[in-house]
Design a protein that fits this description.
The longest helix is centred in the N-terminal third of the chain and has 45 residues. Helices cover 37% and strands 17% of the residues. It has a domain of 114 residues. Helix 2 crosses helix 3. With 174 residues, the protein is of the alpha+beta class. It is built from three helices and three strands. Strands 1-2-3 form a three-stranded antiparallel β-sheet.
Length: 174
């Protein structure tokens, strides 16, 4: 038995087997890590789009906001990932998505799938500071039609009281 441990026969085979196992584990980490990263990025983009779309209607009824969130997620093919939508009227909308992702290589090490969770919130608030922002004043008596183009006023000519067109937010310029 003692001679077996002192013998160097088969040492290279053992070293290659260990290296192959390590290389296989790293390959699984790279492949499955890339899959998890791309799935997380896609899910986060869908959650962001849903929250921003719903956020544009926060002054309306809660069911309208939830409908827009669901419509946006349907467009991104992620409606089945929707965990919940929290709407606080006139304040914020939060969208939470969860997607179970099946792994490939890491199954060899007993990890079959991972749940990816993302959250996005859009809120109504006062804008603190901005560079290059151009606030717009739109006359509410004009009925706007979706898809129709409108020309916005960019100077002081033909401007009535309450309609100021586009103005610069930079102090001392323009």
């Amino acid at each position: 038995m003692f001679q077996f441990w002192k013998s160097e026969k088969g040492g290279a085979t053992l070293l290659v087997a260990l290296a192959f196992t390590g290389l296989l584990a790293l390959t699984g980490l790279v492949v499955d890590g890339g899959l998890l990263y791309s799935t997380h990025a896609h899910l986060q983009k869908a959650a962001n789009a849903a929250a921003l779309s719903g956020g544009q209607e926060l002054t309306r009824d809660e069911t309208v906001v939830e409908g827009i969130v669901e419509e946006t997620l349907t467009h991104h093919e992620e409606l089945s990932s929707l965990q919940d939508t929290v709407v606080v009227k006139d304040k914020r909308v939060t969208v939470r998505l969860t997607k179970p992702t099946e792994l490939t290589f890491m199954k060899l090490f007993g990890i079959d799938n991972v749940d990816i969770n993302v959250k996005a919130t859009a809120r109504i608030g006062v804008m603190g500071r901005a560079m290059g922002a151009a606030p717009l004043g739109i006359d509410e008596s004009i009925e706007l039609v979706y898809g129709q183009e409108y020309t916005l006023k960019v100077d002081e000519e033909e401007v009535d009281t309450g309609n100021f067109g586009v103005f610069s937010t930079r102090r001392g310029r323009g």
